[in-house]
Design brief:
Helix 8 runs parallel beside helix 9 and helix 13 packs parallel to helix 14. This protein is 41% helix and 15% strand. The protein is built from 16 helices and eleven strands. Helix 15 links the parallel strand 9 and strand 10. The radius of gyration is 20 Å and the shape is globular. The strands form two sheets. It has an eight-stranded parallel barrel, surrounded by five helices. A two-stranded antiparallel ribbon has the order 2-6. The two termini are 32 Å apart. The chain is α/β, with parallel strands linked by helices and 367 residues long.
């Protein structure tokens, strides 16, 4: 079984037609339900729902507090390589962009880990560009061996791997995988992914399942908002998350809502995802997936992150760097994208506390 079988059925659903038929009254009926179905999700993503976001937000806040309390888990990315073999039109790390590539040595990773750990962060997301040639599984295992000395939870966001490779990394100490489908629209996927193994839509789509099968504790998925109609992308992402959640009961499934940020190459998003649309995406996801974590990264401004806090967010990065060696090296790499919220870990923690939230640094220990 693969989500692709479900995707093929969903891709022909007349989403626009259905959404245009939804009324505010229909959305209010959805707010009275305990469990939502596919049509309810479409109603929450419809233009009619835009007009009653405050009412939906009250429900989203109630569900978030019910399932997660007033807590926000803090984490940070740690980039160890920006080598990439893919040509993706929207990414600074694309193989076609010319800049001096970097890959950290074991000694440099040690210093980088020490510097990040000193900020209080205990959950780390290990990132690379997508290149098995430059960052094979053996290199990732060496990285994990170092990071385990400093962090209680290690997730990875690297090129998609086979199940056996995820099993190797799980045994080495990795407990989570993040992988973004970028766009769920199979018809335009190859327009954005011009060359490289990333052009294989199905292999990428099945990546979360391989991570679940390998025993990963947590898997995080997402679509890069701006590559296609955001309503369709969030609808398909939510259905994907629900499929994983019901198929792999032992894995915690969470979602992210990254919006395109400025990169090398000046890529211009084809679809505008304004702040109010991002809010609607988050509210719909919270109501449809009440038990799923939702990550909001430093791609968003401090003001917007603070505003969205009560509406469904459960996990945030703080004081993040998107450059190789960004926490400790004088000679940093090129950032993958520009961040908007430049507050450090202490500043984020204080902001959370002022709003009545508890910043969580550690909720997981390897035995």
């Amino acid at each position: 079984m693969s989500f692709y079988l479900i995707y093929k059925q969903l891709k022909d659903v007349p989403i626009e037609t259905y959404m245009q038929s939804v009324s505010e009254a229909d959305v209010r009926v959805v707010l009275t339900k305990q469990e939502l179905n596919q049509e309810d999700l479409l109603a929450l993503l419809s233009p009619a729902a835009e007009r009653i976001l405050e009412e939906i937000a009250e429900q989203a806040h109630r569900l978030t507090v019910q399932h997660f309390g007033k807590t926000i888990q803090l984490f940070n990315p740690l980039y160890v390589s920006d080598y990439c073999v893919n040509h993706c039109t929207y990414c600074s790390f694309s193989v076609t962009n010319e800049f001096e590539r970097k890959i950290l040595t074991e000694e440099e990773i040690e210093v980088e880990a020490q510097t990040l750990r000193a900020t209080g962060i205990e959950h780390v997301l290990l990132l690379t560009g997508e290149s098995k040639q430059h960052t094979p599984v053996s290199y990732l295992k060496d990285c994990v061996k170092i990071l385990r000395k400093y962090f209680s939870s290690i997730a990875i966001e690297v090129n998609p791997l086979d199940t056996e490779e995820y099993e190797e990394l799980f045994a080495a100490g990795v407990d989570g995988v993040t992988v973004y489908q970028e766009t769920y629209n199979e018809d335009i996927y190859k327009q954005y992914h011009v060359k490289g193994p990333k052009r294989n839509y199905l292999y990428r789509l099945d990546t979360p399942e391989r991570a679940c099968e390998a025993g990963m504790r947590s898997v995080n998925i997402g679509a890069l908002l701006g590559l296609d109609d955001w309503r369709k992308e969030v609808f398909l992402m939510a259905m994907h998350a629900q499929y994983l959640q019901t198929t792999y009961l032992g894995t915690e499934i969470s979602v992210s809502l990254p919006r395109i940020r400025p990169t090398i190459g000046d890529f211009i998003p084809t679809t505008a995802v304004y702040d109010r649309y991002l809010v609607q995406c988050m509210l719909a996801l919270r109501l449809f997936l009440p038990r799923s974590g939702i990550t909001l990264s430093t791609r968003e401004s401090p003001e917007l992150r603070d505003h969205l806090l009560p509406l469904g967010v459960t996990k945030m990065s703080a004081g993040a760097s998107t450059e190789v060696g960004g926490y400790s090296q004088d000679d940093k790499g090129t950032n993958q994208f520009e961040i908007s919220d430049e507050r450090n870990v202490n500043e984020i923690s204080e902001a959370l506390i002022r709003k009545g939230y508890q910043p969580i640094y550690k909720d997981w220990v390897h035995l």
